[in-house]
Amino acid sequence: MSQSQFAIRFEQVSKTFGDKRVLDKVSFEIERGLSFCILGRSGTGKSVTLKLIDGLIKPNEGTISVEGQPITNLGSRELVPIRKKMGFLFQSGALFDSITVGENIAYPLRRHTKKSENEIRQCVREKLGLVGLENDYDKMPDQLSGGMRKRAALARALALDPSILLVDEPSAGLDPITSREIDELLLNLKSRDTTLVVVTHNIPSARKIGDELAVLHDGHIIARGRPEELEQSEDELVRELLQSTGGG
């Protein structure tokens, strides 16, 4: 498979914080349009992996490529066009509390495009409609439930029509019904040829969303494959993880 067919590629990537080695020579590729879920216990480097993909942090060793372009040595200004290809749905949602929901979604459009105000407003309404919040343009974030805030944050992550969406713990803090609704929204993105990289503790959610799952443990990917393949893993930790029914 050629390099151009990969949305993301890690080659021998290591990341250390102080004397703690979080990732140790990790290598993997994610095909374009694939939904890739990263599983593992807390503190295994799952969220760190997302931040490395987005260039928010740098690896100590190795090479990271996004859609065929190495990003490891790029400065913040050089990363801008790469980041415009990626949306990031943070675990907390990370909405700006001082502006309306609509203005939150308009923010990346104002910052990174030359669209007119009418075009921006139309685009914002389209994205709100996509997540079922078409009537909430003028609400403030603190007027929304946890699930609605997550939906609004997803709309903002999609504002620039990214080809890659990074998602950190989409089910965190949500009840099971709302969690399933977020899963459905993410599944709908697969029909738009969006590459999804999802970090989650929610195994039922990962089974539903993921074309492929990868298990991180002690700085290494110890298993990777379709859910039914990982169920048959010779590694007891992998089998236990896949049999979990927990949502958190």
Number of helices: 9
Question: Helix coverage percent of residues?
Answer: 25-40%
Shape: globular
Q: Describe the biggest sheet?
A: 6 strands, mixed
* Secondary-structure class: alpha/beta
Following the backbone from N to C, one meets helices and strands in this order, namely EEEHEEHEHHHEHEHEEHH
- Residue-averaged pLDDT, rounded? 90
* Strand tally: 10
Distance between the termini: 36 Å
Residue runs with pLDDT of under 50 for 5 or more positions: none
| Percentage of residues in strands | 25-35%
- Rg estimate, integer Å: 18 Å
Query: How is the largest sheet built, in terms of strand order?
Result: 6-7-8-3-9-10
List strands and helices in order, with pairings.
Elements: E1 6-17, E2 20-31, E3 35-39, H1 46-53, E4 61-66, E5 69-70, H2 76-83, E6 86-89, H3 101-112, H4 117-130, H5 146-157, E7 164-168, H6 176-190, E8 195-199, H7 203-209, E9 212-217, E10 220-225, H8 227-230, H9 236-243
Parallel strand pairs: 3-8, 3-9, 6-7, 7-8
Antiparallel strand pairs: 1-2, 1-4, 4-5, 9-10
Helix pairs in contact: 3-4, 3-5, 4-5
Structure notes:
The protein has nine helices and ten strands. With 248 residues, it is an alpha/beta fold. It has a domain at 100-160. It has a six-stranded mixed β-sheet, with helices on both faces. It has a four-stranded antiparallel β-sheet with strand order 2-1-4-5, with helices on one face. α3 (101-112) runs parallel beside α5 (146-157). The mean pLDDT is 90.
Concise summary:
With 248 residues, the chain is an alpha/beta fold.
What key phrases describe this protein's structure?
alpha/beta; 248 residues; 6-stranded mixed beta sheet; 4-stranded antiparallel beta sheet; 9 helices
